[in-house]
Structures are given as structure tokens and as C-alpha cells.
From TrEMBL:
It comes from the Bacteria. This is Uncharacterized protein. The chain crosses the membrane at residues 22-40, 46-63, 103-124. It comes from Candidatus Nanopelagicus abundans. Keywords: Membrane, Transmembrane, Transmembrane helix.
Length: 126
């Protein structure tokens, strides 16, 4: 695991990665809870689309933790390898540009994963 900032590749350390893993677990719990509730209450099939939001929470946390890259930090031009909450600024404009590209890619991947989870739940005949 890298313990230093790498533009466009790694902008968070161990503590921040664990925080994103916790977000992913929370999103997974919300997704499973939502699916269970929708199935138990015999909702209209279109209500299944509502799991997109909890699936998105899961997806963002999961992809950020696996990528070792924070979407928000990437967009803001910051990084953190110190204690939680101690954020540093990215100095180079080229590095900020690389970080923004990675952040946008993480957002696209997260939307795609959440959409896939939602689509699978929508089409499964339960």
C-alpha cells in the first residue's frame, strides 16, 4: 500500500481507506435492507428502482477504497496520508488535473456499478 501521494493514482492513506470501507459496508447494508423491505412489502416493480441510491453509496465507498483514491479530494485538489481530517493541498496544476480525471472516472464507475445492481434487481423475477 502506498503511503505517499501519487497524482491521479493514490490520494488517501490507511485511515481514509478504512473510512471508505465503512461507507461501502453501510451502503451494502442499506441496499440489502432496501431489497428485503421491497420484497417483503410486495411493492410495485417500479419501486425496485429506489435501490439505486443505497447502491450508489455502496459503490462510491467500494470503488474509492479499492482505488485508494477519494473522489471528493480529487475534485478539490487535496489529499490525506496523515491523521483523519488533516488534509493537504496538491501543489501542481498538472497533478490537480490528473486527480480530477481520476475522480470523474471513479464517479462514472460508481454510477455504472449502482446502475448494474439496480438493473439486476429490477429484472430478477422475484
Amino acid at each position: 500500500m502506498s503511503s505517499e501521494y501519487i497524482p491521479g493514482s493514490c490520494n488517501i492513506g490507511t485511515g481514509e481507506i478504512r473510512r471508505r470501507q465503512a461507507v461501502a459496508l453501510f451502503g451494502l447494508f442499506l441496499t440489502i435492507f432496501s431489497i428485503t423491505t421491497l420484497l417483503a412489502t410486495d411493492q410495485n416493480k417500479s419501486a425496485r428502482l429506489s435501490i439505486f441510491i443505497p447502491a450508489m453509496i455502496f459503490s462510491i465507498g467500494f470503488i474509492q477504497s479499492r482505488s485508494k483514491f477519494c473522489l471528493a479530494y480529487g475534485l478539490a485538489g487535496t489529499f490525506n496520508f496523515d491523521r483523519l481530517g488533516k488534509i493537504s493541498k496538491v501543489g501542481s496544476a498538472a497533478d490537480r488535473t490528473a486527480d480530477r480525471k481520476t475522480a470523474v472516472l471513479i464517479l462514472i464507475k460508481s454510477v455504472a456499478l449502482a446502475a448494474l445492481i439496480t438493473a439486476v434487481f429490477f429484472v430478477i423475477p422475484l
